[in-house]
Specification:
The structure holds two protein chains of two kinds. Chain A has ten helices and no strands. Chain A is mostly helical. Chain B is elongated. Classes of the chains: A mainly alpha, B mainly alpha.
């Protein structure tokens, strides 16, 4: 039955063009996702890298992460909309709050799990702290850091549907509109687009890891 | 902020009633998820080839937006709590299965060999040796699952006031009373933090042999057990 809905949704030509077409909605959805991921990475990565490098603040970090997870995404969205009115900012705030904890915690953990002996060797050879961070620790920690970014990205892809609840676009449009119109074909079509987008995210991160992670690290991992 | 606890009568619950409802809708799925994840994880440990596909399936299921999941289920289970709890149960698997698999796999071979040498059968070895050693990893997974479950229940408000504290969000919008939204967000955050703390306490009680120093290192700072495991799946 679900497959029938999926088939009906995707074979309807009206769903492929125009303002409410699948390409437009996917584009908007990807836009929100990239923006939220970029903001969350801009916050989470530097903090995680530095605290992980110096090995300090792990407890404070996990407290922050727990607090960030504890804030309900949907609740924040409604609250922000009541306070700030409709707009992109109040969608980005909950999404960033959602995505920062996994990035932060995984980055910190990745940096902590780097074998200390090459780090000591690098320091003994006279490398600067920045050099150690970027040329020794970061390449070794990269697979785990990427996996943190990936789980953040998947959570954002799935959750960015809430943007539609406060009048913005994205694939959530189909789900929210379908709910109010009692049009299950639309809901399921939208949901399957999101699932496909999530799979594409997995594939993208796999490809990035292939290219970016040094072969030596990949072999030992 | 007057009327912070003045719950509109259409919700037919007091504030405490909503808290109780919220905890039930959030925690039962975690429990159900654990019941499903334990045997599933054991299968993945036993048959290694099963693990990557299981991770892929749980990840894809996790990516289905909760609202869409609810709407699909309405046809089968109606606008009830069950419709909210089934997706939440499914979502917990993406965290719990890797956490348990990691935990059980982290048991050293020598320990297993010692248990076998002492005459432990496979079942007794699993229950008395592997599970206790895996407790820190399992609890780490439970913490993430519980906290996100408490947050996700609120989306249930969109399918006919099945969101417990989340229903306050809807009422905040339709009655234009932002303090109700504050109430919902703050209460859910506090519930999540309390549940998290309770799980930490459970772990401390269940693993009395762990010295406090390494405990912090191994589990407190490792709340993302899904991350390294998902790494396997993408390879």
């Amino acid at each position: 039955m679900i497959l029938n809905f999926v088939n009906a949704f995707f074979s309807d030509h009206a769903h492929w063009t125009g303002y409410d077409g699948i390409p437009t909605r996917v584009g908007e959805h990807v836009g929100y996702t990239l923006l939220a991921l970029a903001l969350a990475a801009a916050i989470g990565l530097p903090v995680g890298l530095l605290t992980g490098h110096y090995g300090r603040g792990g407890n404070a970090l996990s407290l922050i992460a727990t607090a960030g997870r504890a804030l309900p995404t949907f609740g924040l969205l409604v609250l922000m909309t009541l306070l700030l009115g409709f707009g992109l900012v109040n969608v980005m705030i909950p999404l960033v709050v959602l995505a920062v904890p996994p990035i932060l915690v995984t980055t910190y953990e990745a940096m902590r799990s780097v074998d200390p002996s090459p780090v000591d060797a690098a320091r003994g050879m006279g490398m600067s702290e920045a050099g150690i961070l970027f040329r020794v620790e970061l390449p070794v920690a990269l697979p785990l850091i990427l996996s943190g970014l990936r789980s953040a990205a998947i959570q954002i892809v799935s959750t960015a549907t809430i943007a539609a609840y406060v009048s913005l676009g994205g694939l959530g449009r189909y789900i929210v509109d379908g709910l109010y119109q009692r049009n299950y074909e639309k809901v399921i079509g939208g949901a399957s687009c999101v699932a496909v987008l999530a799979l594409a995210t997995l594939a993208l991160f796999w490809a990035v890891a292939r290219v970016a992670v040094s072969p030596g690290v990949r072999r030992s991992a | 902020m007057s009327g912070f606890f003045d719950i509109p009568s259409d919700l037919q619950h007091s504030w405490l009633g909503l808290v109780g409802l919220h905890l039930r809708e959030a925690l039962l799925p975690v429990l159900a998820g654990l019941v499903v994840a334990l045997p599933l994880a054991q299968l993945c440990v036993r048959f290694r080839w099963l693990y990557p596909p299981v991770l892929w399936v749980t990840t894809v299921l996790y990516a289905i937006p909760s609202l869409a999941f609810f709407v699909v289920l309405i046809d089968y289970t109606g606008q009830t709590e069950l419709t909210v709890m089934i997706p939440l149960t499914v979502y917990t698997l993406v965290v719990l299965v890797p956490a348990i698999v990691d935990g059980v796999r982290s048991v050293p071979q020598e320990t297993l060999a010692a248990a076998t040498a002492m005459g432990f059968g496979p079942v007794r070895r699993y229950v008395q040796v592997q599970l206790p050693i895996a407790v820190p990893a399992i609890v780490a997974g439970l913490r993430v699952a519980t906290v996100s479950s408490i947050s996700l229940v609120s989306v249930g408000t969109l399918i006919g006031n099945q969101g417990a504290l989340g229903n306050l969000l809807n009422d905040a919008t339709i009655y234009n009373r932002p303090e109700l939204a504050w109430n919902a967000v703050i209460t859910m955050a506090v519930l999540a933090i309390l549940a998290d703390a309770a799980l930490v306490l459970v772990r401390v009680l269940l693993t009395p042999w762990m010295p406090s120093g390494t405990r912090r290192r191994k589990t407190g700072a490792r709340p993302e057990p899904a991350a390294p495991a998902l790494e396997d799946a993408a390879r």
